């Protein structure tokens, strides 16, 4: 059951190595602090999950942020009601998000194509609006769900265990060890490697092949006697659970949950990450998530003074022009860069960065292959 | 009875905005077969045409009037908009009526933007999948929103209603009821009438002009029309421009009702997509009908009596209707059989 092909084993080993050594190789890039690396790992998990649905079956869901939000809310409620330990929090986050995905998927999967996209969008918007308005007792509306000192925390109270964190608000912990900084990152990293492994298993399994069959020719799959509904639903629920896990981890690293995580632009972001990296490839979504989170962090930190310093070598007038133009794209305007990037990728590189890389490699190979031949003649 | 009528009116003017956006969306989908997620951004651009128009009109000159003294004994500074300087009373009128006058700016600007958008980007996506169309137009919507944000800033820009049109219209009298039994904000009535005129105009254009006839023929069978030696692509480009204009004027006239900011388009887009789907993909009357219907439903759902009965229904009613329609009748209320059914 846990067997992987030799090639996949190597891939997994390399992937694990890359993830675990993140603090080392991100240091020269200026991104090796735990908070950001946690985000890298969490959004990679989210993207891997989304890719299981979109990449394998071609069904474009525009409502996956809802599952992320549900996961966050569940995790925070688990902190409030049960225990500050992250194990029950993550477990419930995954389960509840899976339950939501089961219900939403059951209805949405009755339609295909754009209707499916709109159905998922409609469900996600419902969750979002309800979280903002009527469900305020559960979600705490615009403020976001916060921990409080006098939460019941039944399990912690029953075990008589003191919460980690001393006099202030309690902080999430794994078996008594406070989940902060690098420890938090390594938990996220371990889960990321686990999800990558699961995604490898799914890609290589008959289940994954069936999903790809549905993507390439649904009608033919049906005519060969396949009942595609349970397969689709399973894929939808799995990807929803991954999103729930990511949402739970967001709450673990920062115990607050807000409705803005469910906005449909958030769903758009995860689509963007997957597309940017490469839809339907194993590693693509992870790369996409990292690239976007990295640039979001770097670009939005740049301000006019830094630009002025960079373009100091130019004559004054040109410096001013360069700074004025570029300042629209950084800092607050980072989303503009993101949107442009999005358009460019979809227009020129629909297969994402992974496809770009493969094309490049193929071209280099061809270049090398033809040269000796020409020399031989 | 009056409450019901008032709610109906409430729904009609909101529905008018939905109908106008959905109309353009359907026009684009029916002709070009493109699912345009950037259509909300066109609405937003229309809003900001009105904002920019007023901004230009109210560029002022400051002159000192020595004959008048302020309470502090200083000469009073008189600020006159330049337009008023040049055109006198008509200029003042223009400043007052900046929102309706901004249509003059909105129409050409939106036409150019729409045609540029279609020629520059959208036409490369006719042969691509719907998913890719959604993605590229979604990206475009982000870009347009952010561009507007970088020019106009993130805060909303409230626009005034022309001074003569403020206050309430006594609709009760028009319907032969007691005076003051049913009043309604004047500008909303105007918006409703305006949108009806635009909708009527679009339908008349498609129905009664040769151009419209060719476009309708192209919607039914693009290839056959092309084989007749008609450059259907060029017509469809104009149709895209027309859709952009409809969205733009819908936005420009909506500014007094809701101060626009850079993401107003996104908020309307999701709703109008729902409207299109409920009405039936590719059906123009369906889009209009569904727009008004959902507007009315939403306004009835936000009545207190109903909200106490079903809390939160006002937030989700539109989506709920969409889900039900999609599951029960996927081609929508007035959709043709076989168009995007699946």
From TrEMBL, chain A:
It comes from the Bacteria. The keyword Cell membrane applies. InterPro entries: ABC_transp_permease, LivM-like. Keywords: Cell membrane, Membrane, Transmembrane, Transmembrane helix. It is found in: Cell membrane. It is a multi-pass membrane protein. GO terms for cellular component: plasma membrane. GO terms for molecular function: branched-chain amino acid transmembrane transporter activity. The chain crosses the membrane at residues 12-33, 40-66, 86-107, 114-135, 183-211, 231-250, 270-292, 336-358. The keyword tRNA-binding does not apply. This is ABC-type branched-chain amino acid transport system, permease component. It comes from Paracoccus alkenifer.
Automatic annotation (TrEMBL), chain B:
Keywords: Amino-acid transport, Cell membrane, Membrane, Transmembrane, Transmembrane helix, Transport. Pfam families: BPD_transp_2 (PF02653). It comes from the Bacteria. The chain crosses the membrane at residues 15-35, 42-59, 101-122, 134-152, 189-215, 236-257, 269-297, 309-328. GO terms for molecular function: transmembrane transporter activity. It is a multi-pass membrane protein. GO terms for biological process: amino acid transport. It is found in: Cell membrane. GO terms for cellular component: plasma membrane. Belongs to the binding-protein-dependent transport system permease family. LivHM subfamily. PANTHER family: ABC TRANSPORTER ATP-BINDING PROTEIN, BRANCHED-CHAIN AMINO ACID TRANSPORT SYSTEM PERMEASE PROTEIN LIVH. This is Branched-chain amino acid transport system / permease component.
